[in-house]
Amino acid sequence: MGAAPASRDVTSYGMGLAAPLALFFLVFFVAPLLQLLWLSLHNDTAGLHWGLGQYLHFLSDPFSLSVLGSTLLLGAEVTAVCLVLGFPIAWLYQRVGPRLQTIIILIVLLPLLTSVVVRTFAWIVILGRQGIINATLQSLGIIDTPLKLLYTQFGVVIALAQVQMPLMTLPLITALGRIDPNLDDASCSLGAGSWRTFFRVVLPLSLPGVIAGCTLTYAAAITAFITQSLIGGGQMLFMPMYLYQQASTLQNWPFASAISIIFLLAVLAVVSVFTTLGRLSRGYGGA
Amino acid sequence: MILNRRSLMTTALTLGAMKAFPGLSYAQARPLVFATFTGSWEEAHKAVLVPAFRKANADAAIVLDPMLSVDQIAKVNAAKANPPIDVMLHDPGPALVAIGQDLAEPYPVEKSAYYKDLIAEAQEPMGPAPFFQVVGLTYNPEAIKTPPTSWADLWKPEFKGRVGITNLNSTLGTGWLVEIAKMRGGSEANVDPGFKALEELKPNLAAVAANPGALATLFQQGQIDISPGNFNAIQILKARGVPVEFVAPKEGAIAFKTTIHIVKNSPNRELAFRLIEASLSPEVQTTLMNPPYLIVPTNSKVAMGGEIARVLAKDTAELKQKFVFQDWKKINEQRSAWIERFNREIKI
């Protein structure tokens, strides 16, 4: 103990430990990103003429903007569904015995252990014209002709919400676990009803978890190429498919690069809104 | 294998150096890499073509790398000086792109034993066509009792909400749109009538699949009962017990040449040539023509038989008469504009 140099600040850490990861990110993340940016600043597909033409093309085209808009909206819808369905599960988790807790955590984690492709095909079986939902409704006599569920925005949102649900539930479980259960009792003993306790005590204190869950779910939902294209079909265009079309089918790499940079910036903007909310919530929670 | 910091660093530095100095990357003795298509193609090539090649070439090392045509182009384009692939397989549209971007080596025709036996349509000096893909109408015989006979049948009112198509990302989708345009007086240069016809097809459309593979799933799920479809893809579904049949429409089935190319700057040029020779040989083509692969042969010395003779053509003469070949050079000129138009107009 006495051998430790007294001058060393306990809050400082050796940066050397972070160097390998930093190098890894530099080589495999930052460098390709810069290459992407470089490519997007060319006006022709061969990459010979510099210019902002690809960005102008995207930003002046109402169709491209509508693709971006519908993708961002899709993310918001999926995040909302996940939050509304995920919160009660996380809340329940904190209030049941250890055996039920194991079952809940298993149910939450199980989707993560299955391939996205398999889960998405399962949704095709469920939502199809002769799928489980339509077959049940028809046998109960509620509908005559099958509902169109597959290849609709509704179908995409539901399937994505199921696929991304663990990303919402796990941060919520952690956040709710940090709240002292005595606060609930204190609120009740001071005369607040259960709803009032929920909205004035539990919800504000769980906001960091809500923000973390929303950020993860949102980012995963808007970039989910497989689920979007299999459930949405070939006529519903979101940014990942738009990118794929330009890069692979048409080999128009500069435009594809510009699309990805724009998409990246749009997502960063949304995520920074979430983070700002998170910072505000910390102030709120501490007050 | 134990990972420690040192070995990770070595790996990272090696990878970095390989990127910076591509010449270092591989010893010349890497195995022959053959980029085939995924699915039934990979199965057929693994089971028939690769063993035939190895038998004829003293068990030469070969690796199959299944991916789409467009991905092959992207991969070769990214490392032109030292391509990671030796032999590419292409649909007609991507083949022209690959040749246009100078990614393919001319085929050494004078050295080839089989090139002159190929039917005229398959003789391509930049890479011959060992296979044809045939696109016609596919339908579920349990739901549709009278077999369709024409592309125009897709517009029949009784198929309301039962028709599936694919978008234009695929060769199938684009080629079909051209054929629809031709049926209504258009051509490769003018697909306006095709788009007009698509507009009228909307009430019948149950699905626009993101790729031809997804169409197969939709038949299995009963989501669609009729669609333009690929002859070979249908055989696989049939073999698995899915009720589905293929008919060549009276306007002619669309034939896509699948060409095979030696990649420019390949370190394995000679082996690549021999693999392609194997694919053109009557022995391999005869085996691939039989079940379960049912691939249409292009070598005129192979006599057509079985299901192919029953559904498609009895011999080369009938094949030429019943198949429609499209001008993909013309199609490629406008393909991106069509894709954009499809994106905008086709919402169901």
UniProtKB/TrEMBL annotation, chain A:
Membrane topology: Multi-pass membrane protein
TM helices/strands, residue ranges: 21-41, 67-91, 103-126, 154-177, 255-277
Principal cellular location given in the protein's record: membrane
Subcellular location: Cell membrane
GO CC terms: plasma membrane
UniProt feature coiled coil, ranges: none
Domain ABC transmembrane type-1 residue range list: 68-274
The entry's keywords: Cell membrane, Membrane, Transmembrane, Transmembrane helix, Transport
Pfam families given in the database record: BPD_transp_1
Any one GO biological process: transmembrane transport
Family: Belongs to the binding-protein-dependent transport system permease family. CysTW subfamily.
Protein name as catalogued: ABC transporter permease
Automatic annotation (TrEMBL), chain B:
Assigned GO CC terms: outer membrane-bounded periplasmic space
GO biological process, one term: polyamine transport
InterPro entries (alphabetical): Sperm_putr-bd (IPR001188), TAT_signal (IPR006311)
Pfam family, one: SBP_bac_6
Molecular function in Gene Ontology: polyamine binding; thiamine binding; thiamine pyrophosphate binding
Membrane-spanning intervals of the chain: none
Domain of life the protein comes from: Bacteria
Keywords: Signal
UniProt-recorded name of the protein: ABC transporter substrate-binding protein
Organism field: Bradyrhizobium commune
Taxonomic lineage of the native organism: Bacteria, Pseudomonadati, Pseudomonadota, Alphaproteobacteria, Hyphomicrobiales
